[in-house]
Here is the input.
Amino acid sequence: MGTIDDNHVILQIKHVVFFLLVVLCIIIPVEGAIEQRGQLISIAKGDHHILNAENCSGFYYSTTSGTYYESLELTFSEDGFIDTGDAIYTSKITSGSTAFFGKKYKVLEDGMLSESLISSGSRDLQRGNDFDLGNGCKLVLQGINGNYALLELQKNSTSVTTKTVEEGSKFNFTTEVDGTEYVILEGTLEKVLDSKDPIVRLKSVNHYSDVPRKIEKGDEYGKFEVTAVTNKSIELKNSAPVRMHLADYVTILDDLIDLRVADTVYRACSYNMTKDTITSYKIRGTSLTVNRSDSSPDSCNWTADSFGMLFYDPEYDLSTESLEMSLDAGNDWIPEGGLVYESLPVKIAYKNPEMMDYQEEWFNQGYSMLGWDGKKYAYFGTDQGIVNILLEEDDKILYPDEEYNLKEGYTLEVTDLDSDNACLTLSRNNLPVYSSIISPGKSADLGTHTFLYKKELNGIEVPLFSVYVDSVMQGGELSAVSLKYLLHFSDSPLELGYGKKLGQLTVVETYPKLRLENKHEVWSGSDINVTEEIWIGRFEKKTSGNLYVTFYPYMNKVENVESILPSVSSWSIPAISVEEYLVGV
Here is the structure.
């Protein structure tokens, strides 16, 4: 297990291949945003890539059929440089549907798009339990007469129109846009249950926005301009060159894709999706397709390069996690040991030079870092567990009486300041746990500059919180303490001892790496709960007599499902996934 330090990485910059970070977010992530990375790709001179929903999350993608419409083609004429017209965003139109900037649309006519708000939704509908369609619209059951139901479409609680629909029949509601009628809601009345508490069952419900968007040649979307609008596709090209440098955030497609370059090498990718607009969804990795009709076994492998929720550190250009699935030939069973999750720790040198001689095996000369379920942890060694790395911050100016909020209830304060002496106090839940007077260059807990709070966890003395006090500034209202290299570990270890079970996996190795395997056969015919956080989904298609199965890893991020899904009756749960409700199928 090697050690990584800043100087070593910097010296290697000239010898690495250029890589980028695809970030689907705004330049400065808003508070409450969820970050997700896309795949890692080279951006050296002559490189050419096509990003789409199969390899880069954020574009519209159906996890029930594998349908997608969008692609972004990037050509690099120089290292980190995209010339004018060499970034091409294309939205294909298929069977009257398309996607534009990550959302699905119904194509009303060339360039006229109506957003798909619900796609192929199914549910039961009762009197008093309306179908909330979003955007102020809802479908109301007004009554039942034999095999007929009276359905009413409302907007902002005001009736738009009503229709009498027979059991087994299709229905639709329309709206007028510029003198032309367009369908905004359609579906099938599958069943009418005329009882004391009347109920109808709807299926294949599709709801479209009644305010379509018009896309015309010459329209500008950030750095892109619409260059073609036809009945087959919509095309946009960058109207200005794009230049990327180390540690850059460069917007490519507004509110969809940014290029984020790592600190020391051109490598990494991620995106942010704001919780204000989406609070419940799947975060998906690259889809891999295997032919299950042949006689050979199949396997799928994912790392941080292909699954954006696995841990990646752009500062050091490192990732530690991998996921592998192997299938038996001729059936859908994963044999024992065929589903494997691994994470290999990497030693990270302390930025604080005074911490280098910390006398504890797993924290001497640095700390061992690894990813676990996509998050960053410090590794304790054999059967000792791992702890979350809560804070790594290079610089901080702390003023007297300022309370600096750390995590897990910890705070840091300057409780006294005198000449070149600073008294720092670390508290938890408003109760002091450690205080020390630091005189930079003269006295400190470690060396002559370091404030250090230790705590024993699982028999290991962990440097739970450390900070380098660079200088003390005295001057009335301008008094402050200049801090560097803040490092904070959680005091709640995650126990990962040999034999522990998580999802379908069991811990089979804890040193020199974490390795989890399935200890029994696992059925791959439905979604697989790999660990507590990671899942593998699937869908299948038959083509030319062959059965092709597509697998994709994902994590669920659910803030409040009830705030996303329409209300349902006690008779039925809607046959529609959170993701399908949000982006359609």
